[in-house]
């Protein structure tokens, strides 16, 4: 499912932006695999420094507090790969949400950030009750 979302659906939406309405519906679907696909459909374009980060951000915001590991992992995965080309964008999105994101999301998302950015995100989590020295205080 991940490969189809990233390699087939994502490029289709990039070529025909009106298809993004399908992703909008997927992002709110009751099945977490469909919601995950809405996130991962954006992976390749964002990884290349392109794509609609605002759309991804809306979806991720709505899913940040999900308990499903595979959603948390997908959010972190897309943030990590986006951060390789646009670390400042990922940092600006992640920092104000540092308290809400799961540990697995943070661990992935901070990998491409600068040391200073990484430390700022982890410090924000620790100040809000996260475990110092660990990239997340919530159970994953």
From TrEMBL:
Alphabetical list of InterPro entries matching this protein = ARM-type_fold, DNA_alkylation
Q: Which Pfam families match?
A: DNA_alkylation
Domain of life where this protein originates? Bacteria
Q: Which residues form the signal peptide?
A: none
Recorded protein name is DNA alkylation repair enzyme
**Protein species of origin:** Raineyella antarctica
């Amino acid at each position: 499912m991940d490969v189809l979302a990233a390699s087939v659906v994502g490029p289709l939406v990039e070529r025909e932006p009106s298809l993004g309405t399908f992703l909008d519906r997927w992002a709110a679907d009751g099945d977490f695999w469909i919601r995950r696909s809405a996130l991962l459909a954006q992976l390749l374009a964002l990884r290349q420094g392109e794509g609609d980060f605002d759309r991804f951000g809306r979806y991720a915001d709505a899913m940040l507090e999900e308990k499903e590991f595979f959603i948390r992992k997908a959010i972190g995965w897309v943030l990590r790969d986006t951060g390789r080309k646009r670390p400042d964008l990922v940092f600006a999105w992640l920092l104000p949400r540092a308290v809400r994101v799961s540990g697995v999301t943070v661990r992935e998302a901070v990998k491409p950030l600068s040391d200073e950015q990484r430390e700022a995100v982890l410090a924000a989590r620790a100040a809000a009750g996260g475990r110092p020295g660990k990239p997340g205080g919530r159970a994953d």
